[in-house]
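call fold(seq) -> tokens
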Amino acid sequence: MTPLDELYRQTILDHYRNPRRRGALNGPHVHAEGENPSCGDEFFLDLATEDGVVTDVAIGGQGCSISQASGSMMADVIVGKTLDEVRDLARKFKVMMSIEEGDNPVDPERPGSVLGELEALQGVRKFPVRIKCADLAWTTLEDALGQL
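ret:
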């Protein structure tokens, strides 16, 4: 295992063991639930927005380390972003998960990381059956955005 693979593995395990923003929201919010029928993973989220900006998010569910870590990582990055930025981030994440292993979804003309810590999930592409696990939180987020 390369040092980069090890770092990615540690990031995923940290989010699985210590999920961010776990719970439920009070006050006005939209709620969405998702399930991966092929493995039984479940994910839900509460999303609060104001003036086109995500003000808070809470997540929950049960499943494998990949699905739950992906949701925790997603929740960590979307608060404070506009709805357009969140939609763009979801699109970029899904592109990252769908491209061939070895390709890089980050535009080489732009400095820095587009997806930041979320890029830790790129390793899931080595196991195509697990891609749906990583996508579950993002599909659920898209369902929540569709309610706005």
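The chain has four helices and three strands.
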